[in-house]
Structures are given as C-alpha cells and as structure tokens.
Amino acid sequence: MSSTGIEVDLQEIFQRYTFDNVCFLVLGFDPKCLSIEFPQLAHAKAFDQMEQSVFYRHVVPEICWKLQRWLQIGEEKKLSIAWKFYDEFLYQCISSKREEITRNKAQKMEEANFDLLTACIELEQEGGGEMDGSTKSNKFLRDMAFFLIGAGRDTISSGLTWFLWLVATHPSLEAKILQEMREHLLVNNEINWDMKEISKLVYLHAAICESLRLFPPIPFEHLYSIDSDVLPSGHPIGPHTKILYSPYAMGRTESIWGKDFLEFKPERWISEKGKIVHVPSYKFITFNAGPRTCLGKDMSFIQMKIVASTIIWNYCLRVVEAHPVLPKISIVLHMRHGLKVRVTKRDH
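^ that's the sequence the OP posted. Answer follows.
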C-alpha cells in the first residue's frame, strides 16, 4: 500500500464480507464474494432485488403491487424472478448439505466446521425435530436460512459503514478509540484479540451504540395488529391496523434523547464509573424490544467491534474529497453512493 493510500468503497466491502460470513455460518457455504477479483454473484444480486421490491410494496398502494403481481409486470415480475432464483440456491444448499451429512456418517467422519444448517438437519435425523416430511422439512430449513441471511447481511454491513464514516470524519473519535486500544489490548505484531479483550473497549462499544442510534440499519418498521390494543402512548388501535414506526426518527427526537439529540456523543452511553449505561430497549429501539428483541444482538455487537477495531488499528480512513454521503431510500439504511474512502496503512 502506497503512502498516498488506495481508494475503496467500504460499503461494498462490508456487504461482501457479511454475505460471505453469514452464508458460511448458516449454510456452511462460502460464496467468496470478498475474493480478490470481487465477483458479481447472481444470488447476492437476487437478494438485493428482493430487498428493493419489498421496499416498493411499502410506498405504493397495496392494490398497485398486487395488480402487478397478478399481471407479472414491473417490480413484482423482478421479485418473482429473484425469489425463484434465490429459492433454487437455498434448496440446492440444503440438498448438498443432506448428501454431505449422509456421506460423512457412512464414512464415520466428523464435521470439519459447524453451521446452523448442519445442526438442524442432524437434530431432525436424530428424532429431536418437529419436521417429519422431507418437503416440509426442507421448507422449514429454507425459511430459517432466508431469515438469518437477511438479518445478518445488510444490517451489520450498514452499521459498520455508517460507524466507519463517523470515525473517518471525527478525528477525535478515532484518537480516543486508538488510545483505549493501546491501554486495554495486548498489542504486538500478530493481532489476535479474543472477546475477553475486546469487551474491555467500553468507549468503542459506546461509539457503536451512538452510531446505531443516529443511523439504525432498519430505519422503519411496519407492523399489523391482530386484535385491539393500546399503544404505550395511550392511543387505542383497532384490529387489522397497520402501524408504522421509525427507529431513525426516534433516535433523533429531543423528548427521548434530550437537547443534544443531534450530537454524536458516545459519552452519553458511559457512566461516571466508566461502565456502559443500560438504556431501555424501548428507548434504544435499534434491536427491537420485548419478546421480539433481535436474537443476533450480541453477535452483531461482537462482529462489529472485532471488524471495527481491526480496521481502525491497522488503517487510517479518510473520506474521498467531495464524495456525497446520503442515505438511500430503502428498507435498510444504505448509503446511496457507497462510502468511498482513501485507506493508508497506520504507522504506530
């Protein structure tokens, strides 16, 4: 890497990284999106198209997209094509995994790596699962894989993109994180920090929370009431009512966060004793709340802290001059033009 650095799109890199990571964790399959040639993978593009089409359903009258679906035109036709392609990809992964497990059992071989798909299939074969038919079982596995890949891909990549943009544009934030790392991490030529060490980085955790407050990966949620209920505000709602709320707006509301609600201030998350302040999930709604709290919350924090600390320690990031940073109108808070940064090797 030259002294002037190289120019990269961090958002694209994070999207490729998280897709590789979640596919390997869930399916035991590495699509190699992050390989050096940056391949354009059809199943990743199909997922992007489905995401775009789902957002389209949120912004047009229901009758419009249902008519398009019936006629198979416009966004609904694109959604059908992408859905069919992605379904085939997931069912192929499930079929290959079943064959691999059967082959390994016949040869009495141990699984080389753990993945959730293997665990579910083995549980089913041992009689511990609820699925008794192959078609029904494959449908369950497909739904599980689709949900987990969707939850683990774009949300983490979005969170990392906005956080590293804040680091690149706030030199004081970068300096404080580096100082904390020097004080709490074992620093040598081979960086191999474990979670016990990473958990000591209180300021890094606080900075990520503050970034997620201002730039939640899911900027709005669309719910539907089954029966009559009363909102926490006291407002009654009837059955079959559509409810829209915005974590993005809530994170920028003075009545919730105080007069400095628009200020990027990691210190609001740190107590006088230097510990992370507990903020109720109904206030910091990024990971949802109550029984529907995100199952991957802890894993998301772990992944973000490991990736962010490794990048910040090794590289200096600066946003390319005149690069526009604007949110994309989508169900996930991406940057419309990506995040172009100049990367230089950090000289400690």
